[in-house]
What we know:
alpha+beta, Alpha-Beta Plaits, four-stranded antiparallel sheet, 4 strands, 35% helix, globular
Amino acid sequence: MVNLSIPDMSCGHCKTAVTEALTSVSGVTKVEVDLDGRTAQVEGNAALAALVRALDQAGYPATLAE
Length: 66
C-alpha cells in the first residue's frame, strides 16, 4: 500500500478528481481518499512515480506520506 499526501485537496470535487486520477493508473486495485487528512491510500502494484505523475497532471501535486 502507498500513502500519499495531497495538500491541495480541499473539497468533494477534489476528492473525485484525485480518485479518478489514481484509479486510471495501471496496476491500481483500490483507492481510499481521506479528504480531511488530505491523503490517499493506494493498493496494487502501480509505481509511485506513475501515481505522482497522474496526480500532477490532474493538478494535485502529491508526495509520499510519512
